[in-house]
Design brief:
The longest helix has 27 residues, at 45-71. By secondary structure, the protein is mainly alpha-helical. The chain has four helices and no strands. The chain starts with 10 loop residues before the first helix and ends with a helix. It has a domain at 72-100.
């Protein structure tokens, strides 16, 4: 019968791969990629990020005022004409925010409206009792 090789010959032999990996990762952490500088910001990074987002959003919002006329063809000749001219934009916005399903009323959902009125009456009477 062959003897199996023993991997527990020396505890140092078992630690050697760990030491190599830790030292290699420590050396890599100190290295700086070409064309970059180490991050040396003293303030919390989340605050710096939010300030940058605010600057970007404000800049884009200011630039959008000048570009709005090229995208929107609004008709100011009357109320109905205006509503018709912005209708495609309103429909697109509804689709973007997911408001495309028809709204359900209490009658359409199968429940009677009496439950709704009873709850609102209870709220009203409890407010009157407190106030």
């Amino acid at each position: 019968m062959k003897a199996r090789p023993s991997f527990t010959r020396s505890p140092l032999a078992a630690l050697l791969p760990c030491v190599v990996i830790v030292s290699a990762s420590a050396l890599a952490a100190d290295a700086v990629l070409p064309g970059t500088d180490p991050l040396t910001i003293e303030r919390p990074l989340d605050e710096v990020m939010v300030e940058g987002l605010n600057r970007f959003c404000r800049r884009e919002l200011a630039a959008s005022r000048g570009q709005r006329a090229t995208h929107w063809r609004r008709d100011f000749s009357g109320d109905q004409a205006y509503a018709a001219s912005v209708l495609p934009h309103r429909e697109r916005f509804r689709a973007l925010i997911g408001a495309v399903d028809p709204r359900r009323t209490a009658e359409a959902s199968g429940s009677s409206g009496s439950n709704w009125s009873r709850h609102s009456t209870n709220r009203r009477s409890s407010r009157e009792a407190i106030g």
